[in-house]
Amino acid sequence: MKSKLMLFLKGFGMGAADVVPGVSGGTIAFITGIYEELLNSIKSVDVTAFKLFFSGKFKLFWQHINGTFLLVLFGGIGVALFSLAKLIIYLLENHPVQIWSFFFGLIIASALLMIKTVKTWNSSAMVALIAGGLIAYFITGITSVADENASLYYIFLCGMIAICAMILPGISGSFILLLLGSYELVLRTVKSAGEAAISANLQGMLDVLPIILVFAGGCIVGLAAFSRVLSWLFQHYHDLLVALLIGFLFGSLNRVWPWKESVQALTDKHNIEVNISPFRATELYGDNYLLAAISLCIVGLLSVLCTEWLAKKLSSLDVG
Which residues span the membrane (predicted)? Predict the structure, then answer.
């Protein structure tokens, strides 16, 4: 039960990270030591698994797909998504500096921990690190221009693309949804579903069910396909892939930089947010603005280090 509770909490952490643009649930999976098992478990949902299921060999099917692991982990992810959607919306709207600062520290600590998992730092690994940083910096610097599209086929496509990013450390699936113009739609839908479930509002649940099912279907298809590619890369190019993912983490800091200023674009005159220096932020908003950001950045960094320490402690207890 202790190991299942820890796995559930790791899933909860992944779900909490996936709600926020700029933070990846894959990062949480990586630093808590379940990333490769997650990929292998998802990959095991294959032709053999379907043959076992449809032939009535349910116990062998469950063992083949590592069913208990997936059920507990995705249970934690689901609880986090439905319970935290409303809170994240509130924090992003009312306390953006604080929440972005917290996740800025979290990502830095995650990248530093991942550096230790690269066995050999050679020129190829360094090139992969720099390439990952540049790719993530470019992606996170793109301003979303897509209008919200509620058509079901588009939502399915968004699910396929976003889930691929969600299982990559450093690339946020929520941010990909933001670029595709579907982030607020999906978040509102999840929030509405949670509220309807709590109030036992059957009609409210039925209203959002099509979007949830179609988005989940896209996620399942994307996950089944992409996990096999990732698993193969981990087996054959472990150090290069990890170095690339570390680069993704450092590059994604561009998106969660806490100090921003709203300016008017020269082309179409709409307001966009640009990163500014901490000193410029102090001039605009006062010393408390900077102090809060730095403090929560440190809290985020320490929370990751404490999570790793706790995971190692519990792992040693299990072994003992």
Answer: 69-91, 97-115, 127-146, 152-180, 208-234, 240-257, 289-311
Cβ neighbours, 10 Å, residue 317: 9
Q: Structural domain tally of the chain?
A: 1
CA atoms within 13 A on the CB side of 188: 9
User: Among candidates 178, 172, 212, which has minimal Cα distance to 82?
Assistant: 212
Q: What is the DSSP-derived secondary structure letter of residue 270? A: -
Characterize 72-91 residue by residue with b for buried, 16 or more Cβ atoms within 10 angstroms of its Cβ, and e for exposed.
bbebbbebbbbbbbeebbeb
Closest CA to 150 of 112, 188, 176, 124: 188
Contact 27, 248 (CB under 8 A): no
| Residue tagged 């730095």 (tokens) | 294
Mean pLDDT estimate for the chain: 79
| pLDDT tens digits for range 243-297 | 988 888 788 787 778 777 665 544 444 556 677 777 777 776 666 777 888 888 8
In-domain check, residue 145: yes
Q: Using alpha carbons, select from 112, 162, 106, 113 the residue that is nearest to residue 139.
A: 162
Crossing angle of helices 67-94 and 96-115, in 10° steps, is 140
Amino acid found at 15? G
In a domain, 139, yes or no: yes
Residues 6+ apart with CB under 8 A from 61: 49, 52, 53, 67
Owning domain of residue 131: 96-319
Cα dihedral sign for 137, 143, 148, 152?
A: negative
Span 161-173, mean pLDDT?
73
Instruction: Give the type of residue at 14.
Output: M
Q: Tell me the pLDDT tens digit for each residue of 76-114.
A: 988 888 888 778 777 877 887 788 888 788 778 878 877
Q: Which two tokens stand for residue 109?
A: 């600590």
How far apart, in whole angstroms, are the C-alpha atoms of residue 304 and residue 282?
Answer: 27
Does any domain span residue 28?
no
The reply to whether 88 falls in a domain is no
Most confident of 14-23, 50-59, 297-306: 50-59
